[in-house]
From TrEMBL:
Its main location: membrane. The keyword Secreted does not apply. This is Putative oxidoreductase. PANTHER family: INNER MEMBRANE PROTEIN YPHA-RELATED, OXIDOREDUCTASE CATD-RELATED. It comes from Rhizobium aethiopicum. It is found in: Cell membrane. The keyword Glycoprotein does not apply. It comes from the Bacteria.
Amino acid sequence: MSNAIILIARILLSFMFILSGFMKLTDPAGTAGMIAGAGLPAATLLAYVAGLFELLAGLAVLTGFQVRIAGWLLAAFCVFTGIAFHLPYASGTELVNILNQIMVMKNITLAGAYILLATVGAGAYSIDARRGLQAVAAR
């Protein structure tokens, strides 16, 4: 049962990054604008890099490939983007401030989920398990 739950969690945790990464790669303008607004250089290039990272990391989580590495990288990505792009959240209209506060909380919460996934691993229903890189979760 634990392995089935880990699989369900991996599916749920991969969805956002697969979709977000695909959207960044097909239309990077909005992300490039946020990156430029945060004062980072090469905004369009960084938007493509972020999109590729999100898509590949999301697919890694979904398929259970190198999940421990992907989990740590996604946790760091969530914390970084929460801080870099959503703090301080007292920088816009009231609605923008509320949305940014929610985004920071979402990113920190997701970082915790990815740290847990990195610690527990991909479970039995994964590429890692088929390659012998993953201990199967206890039942």
